[in-house]
Amino acid sequence: MQDREADNHGVHAEYLTRAGGRFTVGDPAGSAGQAGTELSEDGSVIVGWRTCESGEGCGAWVS
Hints:
Elements: E1 11-17, E2 22-26, E3 46-53, E4 57-58
Antiparallel strand pairs: 1-2, 1-3, 3-4
């Protein structure tokens, strides 16, 4: 995921895995590249996710 807006609001995704994990992957570089990985942290299938923007909140969970 990459934040393409240079508004100083970082974005991140929160996701749930089949194994019961809840994780966050962020955009530590702001609107630059190198945002993260496509693999779940616990190696399990992702069963739900949502996107969030700092200072703005999160969207609804998608499954």
